[in-house]
Amino acid sequence: MHPYNRLPSSGHNSPSPPPSPLRSPRFRHSRSKAGGRFNQPGRTLIQRIVWHLLSVLIRRQGFFLFAPLLYISGMLLYMGSVSFEVVPVISHRPAPGSVYRSPQLYAKLRPEMDADNSSADAISTVWKHSYKGAEWRPCVNKSSGGLAESNGYIYIEANGGLNQQRTSICNAVAVAGYLNATLVIPNFHYHSIWRDPSKFRDIYDEDYFISMLENDVRVVNKVPEYLMERFDHNLSNVYNFRIKAWSPILYYKDAVLPRLLEEKVIRISPFANRLSFDSPPAVQRLRCLANYEALRFSSPILTLGETLVARMKERSANYGGKYISVHLRFEEDMVAFSCCVFDGGEQENEDPGAIRINGKCPLTPLEVGLMLRGMGFDKNTFIYLASGKIYNAEKTMAPLLEMFPNLQTKEMLASDEELAPFKNFSSRMAATDYTVCLHSEVFVTTQGGNFPHFLMGHRRYLYGGHSKTIRPDKRKLALLFDNPKIGWKTFKRQLLGMRSHGDSKGFELKRPNDSIYTFPCPDCMCRSNKTEDARALSAT
């Protein structure tokens, strides 16, 4: 039997595997010779030894299991003999818009910028957009009838800065009116950040506030003594509601009103952002009435603010008394909290730049100047700068003053004696800035926050529904400021387009979850047709 056919025959004639081929005669012949191929002439001793080893290993097929390991070992030995200093290093190129290169861009564009005489009177032509042939006018109606008997007293603590406190005040008016309660003049919570111990009457005209709301919401200075006796004349002993942020008005009716009827005095602390933006028309009307009509700054603040407005208009008389106001958020704490780098050095290069790309870094004074010059405002434009203490002001403000030498601040416009009553009170200083910005022809916001949001709403309320505000696209700006190849004409064309887009966005209606303090249309304002208004005027 053939050695490969070890199974017994099954009765079928299955073909057997072919016999193993005989060895090559050439190979047999070579082996028969003394020494075989290993003694062929022309081969060195080392070559013969290597060939012999390979022959042995090839005949032992297990060698192939170790071949990959031997290959890797050989590569490691080879790499160990090569200096890594010669290996090329792949450098990472920062993403566009991630690096602060504005100083370099300013140096590049400045000659063309200074030579550009094509700018028209931008401040007089900046606002061209109208709301489809109509305007908006304030239409907050005050009640004329008397009020029903009060269900009790509501005392709230307004926390935060000037405009966050303003939110609390207006929301408190709305809640008190909805619950038919008496509102106690809100207490301003002292905060370690703002460090302002001012009371309500230091910031706002308290008597005017009470009188403007007298037919809609009862407002008193304090809780009556006979009620406070129950709490040992200590408001901290009064039951305090801890209300979730953005609670609907129905929550106050279902949860707060029963306790108010029982206790007759309740406290809500903190109260900022404790009422939903979306509420029934009756609640929105009270918010509008409080914010746009009842809240007026106290006499000292109003007097100083109006004085500074008059001085700005006087200095810009050649421009029709029109000036730009800029809210610059480049204080030291703002720069620190932003986690952005502005020195343009090695540290900036190591910064991944995601914050800057997303438009989250505060604009520097230099960038504000570049932006405004690109938008067509020439160096003779008068600017009022609303800001706290600027970070590294001597260095960072220099390029802005070069571009706009007619820039003013409250410290420049007012004497030390005029500013003395306000200097150590951040909210009073902010209220002064608010007044001057409110009456400017153009308001420029460079960073988010309550200050610009309230100003935009207030300006819409005063200027026919148009905010007259420039809100730059900071993501686009980051790309422009980080483009070393851009020329002045291209840069200016991009910025003029951004300005035009801001004009078209001046009229915006409130949408769900929008703040009524930023978008007063249509809750606080009514649309009026220009033709009808003209007819009404001619009839009178």
TrEMBL record:
Annotated InterPro entries: FucosylTrfase_pln, GDP-Fuc_O-FucTrfase
Annotated stretches, region: Disordered: 1-39
Transmembrane parts of this sequence: 63-84
Skewed-composition ranges (Basic residues): 25-34
Keyword Transmembrane: yes
Keywords: Carbohydrate metabolism, Fucose metabolism, Glycosyltransferase, Membrane, Transferase, Transmembrane, Transmembrane helix
Pfam families noted in UniProt: O-FucT (PF10250)
Keyword Membrane: yes
Domain of life: Eukaryota
Family: Belongs to the glycosyltransferase GT106 family.
Identification of the protein by name: O-fucosyltransferase family protein
Originating organism: Prunus mume
